[in-house]
Amino acid sequence: MSLQRQKETPWLTPERDFSFQFGMGMLHGYVKVVDDINKVNLDSMGDWRGMLWGRK
User: Fold this and answer.
1) pTM of the model
2) Which of 1, 38, 47, 50 is most buried by a 10 A CB count?
3) Cα-based torsion angle of the residue sequence 28, 47, 14, 6 in order, rounded to the nearest 10 degrees
4) Rounded to whole angstroms, what are the CA distances from 34 to 26, 28, 41, 49, 54?
5) What mean pLDDT is predicted for residues 46-55?
6) 10-18 contacts, C-beta under 8 A, 24 or more apart
7) Is 3 left (phi over 0), alpha (psi -120 to 50) or beta?
């Protein structure tokens, strides 16, 4: 990945679900890993909660 100021898109190949948080918690989300994107049941994901780093 180039460290110069340009648009870079790092590719991820996650093996399991995870939540993420950037900055001071202003941007956060959840990555759900599935076998087939065409067979995802969004209702089965339920209500996820983002992780607050450093807290349990």
Assistant:
1) 0.52
2) 50
3) -20
4) 26, 20, 10, 18, 28
5) 54
6) none
7) alpha
